[in-house]
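Predict the 3D structure for this chain.
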Amino acid sequence: MLVSLILITISFRGPSSGVAHGIESAGATVLRPFEVAAERIARPFRDVYGYFAGLVHVKRENERLKEEVTRLRQQALQGGTALEQLTRLQALLEFIDSPVFPRDYRPVSTRVISFASEFDQRVVIAAGSDHGIRDETPVITSGGLVGSVTRVTGSSALVTLLTDENSAVQAYDQNTSAIGLVRHGQGEGSLVLDKVTKDKKVEKGDIIVTAGTRSEQYPSLFPRGIPIGIVTSVGQSDSSLWKQIQIAPFVDFSSLDAVTALITGKRNPKAP
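Done. Predicted structure below.
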């Protein structure tokens, strides 16, 4: 170190062409191969360090981009769900404002919070007795009749769907006025118009709606004229008293979301 300091001092103070400069040039010439060798040896290590440093940066950027994509995807899904719900609510409002909506009922629109399954044709809605809902309250969508309330609490209600094997409603053919009983059919989600005598006329493509009347076995009174479904087939046999009428429901019971309960001041037929 002392020699180095002396040489540096001499180099700064001496002329550019002096002895010290010659020694410095000679030393640089001698050390140049070692400098080149050191550079060649160090370069791979610098490259490896740069590669791993860049890899860490790329991984961090990749994680940031993944989080951004997830956030944007969630926003898109939420936006699509909100748009779908808005479309269904608008359809309900249009139906409520239409001439076929029963004027002696007031609507309570709400969400379905528990869905039906293959083995349980019932749903739970997010409105109950606090909103005026009670047993036997009819429930509809913009498509038509869904079912009726069979159990109610203050903030929710259990709705038994029209496709349940224990459900039935008096209905009639809007084209021919033939009256029957709509109930669960053989297949999942299918309906039949039962108890229609052979002398009545019912044809494929006829629209079936609620009759607004009671039967002795099923005394619940639904509003008249609520759409139920369309006739898909009509048959009869010599051994049966009734026609065999299949109906395709207007309501898609597998994708219920927003529904409307029809509130009325009429006395519950089952009340004492």
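The radius of gyration is 41 Å.
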